[in-house]
Amino acid sequence: MATYATYSYDVLVIGAGGAGLRAVIEAADAGVSVGLICKSLLGKAHTVMAEGGMAAAMAHNDDRDSWKVHFADTMRGGQYINNWRMAELHAKEAPDRVRELEGWGAVFDRTPDGRINQRNFGGHRYPRLAHVGDRTGLELIRTLQDHAVYKGMTVHMEHTVIELILDNGRAAGVVAYDRERGRFHVFQAKAIVLATGGLGRAYRITSNSWEGTGDGHALAYRAGAELIDMEFIQFHPTGMVWPPSVRGILVTEGVRGEGGVLKNSEGRRFMFDDIPDNYKPQTASDAEEGWRYTQGDKSARRPPELLTRDHVARCINREVKAGRGSPHGGVFLDIAWIKEKIKDSEGHIKRKLPSMYHQFKELADLDITSEAMEVGPTTHYVMGGIRVDADTQMSTIPGLFAAGECASGINGANRLGGNSLSDLIVFGKRAGEYAARWSRENGAARVDESTVQKAIADSLAPFERGESGENPYKVQSDLQDTMQALVGIVRTESEMQEALRRIQQFKARAARVGVSGHREYHAGWHTALDLRNLLTVSEAVTRSAIERKESRGGHFREDYPDKVADFGAVNIMVKQGRGDELQLSRVPLPPMPDPLKQVIEEQKS
Ligand SMILES: Cc1cc2nc3c(=O)[nH]c(=O)nc-3n(C[C@H](O)[C@H](O)[C@H](O)COP(=O)(O)OP(=O)(O)OC[C@H]3O[C@@H](n4cnc5c(N)ncnc54)[C@H](O)[C@@H]3O)c2cc1C
Fold first, then answer.
1. Higher-pLDDT residue of 340, 579
2. Closest ligand 1 atom to 52 CA
């Protein structure tokens, strides 16, 4: 029988990104005991990479902004299949959550009159992103981490959760192993908050850190929770494309927010060629108007480079396919051109986009103050995730909560840039608050010993197969190639059916993976364990994408290029069936209250 260490908490938070840390603060503030588990070191979660900012309608840079405009922008961006209640709560509460961060020591960039400065971003009608240069995630993590330590928590760093344990249908605990020594740990908890982030590592080209293997999605799914909107993957339009070793690394939308323009190999600003009807009234009619918008002219409309990410990514894809791409398979993003408009443009760009300047200088030997960058789409964010109650963030499993990127609802078919960081602090807080309340109202649940032993035995099976087993890296790599090629930006039924066929083969191969050696810091073993999650989420994405026979937001089907009204009234939901097969259904959207409908109508012009 395997041995393990045990721990017990009122609230157990899995994930130390923005959502997890904000949940910790709220739960600790409620006076319950809080444990935090994360795969990497504290402060290193994926959130630290966030660049452009967090969206909150504080109206500092444009007094026409309000929660109503933010709400309408979010719903339009999500093509109206968002959970309207989450979009409402998010728009209303984000300003307070940002001000709260400031009170805890976050040092935001400032307007000339000393208020938090807000920048333009795609799909946001007014400048709305509170930011710290292009290193906003670092400041967010630093602030939340300091405050969480002050409030009191016990941290288990470099631990990976491999199984969620239920007791009579409610969350009871988790099994984890520490990555350094490979020893097992069992955590009992009255309430569990999943805040495990995204799943970009299912794709070959991604901006996501190594942690993004869809663990929370898969853990919840295997425990019986419902996932929705899994077909909606966000391909960010601007990732680096050259050199190959850095392909996929993000180039923040802040570059376009500061006046950067997209051009094809013919030097044409192709984004002016394709402006969707529902965005026409808000989009600049020429380059001059677009530039004035980026410089804060309230009478100007935004340039087409700041249309939603799904649209910009598809336009880039089209240019490349039509043979008008850059030498390395992207297009050109030019911020250097602003020297025509700004005297000290070099200093200005370095001040506004310090990380981008260094990123290109160090990684591509390119000076963005004098040359155009080469960029192309990169897998960036998953709109889909664990289905939660909007107010409490509890999943369909009692006592299991989810917040941040692994939860779903707020973004619908497409997330607006900047809405994730504000989502983390709004819904991280709510998850922590309601998890603490649940832990007070419900006693401890029992962790079943045989379930623990089975989870441990399953996780050690790759050692028994040893070197004669399949290579886990190879299976992971083949899966990434398949998802990239067959379930990417432009999808068709036949390609996705082929992806499904291959996923079944990868599952069979994953069941045979083998590793040898000690358990201590064994990257091959870690990959073998991640594989199960990557396969689960890849299948969920592919099957949901096949089911949605239309194009909407981040999901574009070449064989069904238009929106279909019936699909505009449902979310696609997946759940594990009794025989472990994936069950799929269409869940009707709840009706939106009239006052919110009116807000959307008012903001349509
Ligand atoms: C380069 C880049 C720039 C971005 N810029 C912006 C931006 O400017 N504005 C914006 O709004 N959004 C931005 N985003 C998106 C945003 O950063 C993410 O959506 C967000 O940070 C996710 O936060 P999270 O708290 O949900 O999870 P994460 O920050 O991803 O944290 C997940 C945590 O869960 C832990 N974890 C995962 N699995 C397990 C497991 N099995 N066991 C234990 N722990 C586990 C991880 O170790 C980690 O601590 C950006 C994303 C990228 C990649």
1. 340
2. 8
